[in-house]
Amino acid sequence: MAHRSVSELAGQLQSQQGRMDTTRQRIERIESELAQLVQTLDNSREQAREARGRLEDAVVSMGDLETTRQALEAERRQRTEARDLARDAARTSRDTSHALAPGWNRSAPRSPR
After folding, report:
1. Per-residue pLDDT tens listing for the chain (113 residues)
2. Residues 104/98, Cβ–Cβ less than 8 Å
3. Three-class SS state of 109
4. Which residues contact 7 (CB under 8 A, 6 or more apart)?
């Protein structure tokens, strides 16, 4: 019976060692996966930091472009007003020169050629 008891204990010991090996392998696999997750998280944080930097640069650029757009819009309005004033002045000058020209009479009928 002693031999049987030793065999049973040996079997139990071997079974426990097998479970411990399986558990160690599982722990190693989990640690490896955890290391990969930490690396992925670090990479994601770095990418987010870089993206925030690019976003900040883009926002600054948009602000600069908006300022430029407003200045160009104001310049366009000024040039449009100047053009309209020049047209009015040219029209007035033309009308005045025609009115002062000898033989020019707007109410007189034109002679056929």
Report:
1. 677 888 898 889 999 999 999 999 999 999 999 999 999 999 999 999 999 999 999 999 999 999 999 999 999 999 999 999 999 999 999 999 988 887 655 555 555 55
2. yes
3. coil
4. none
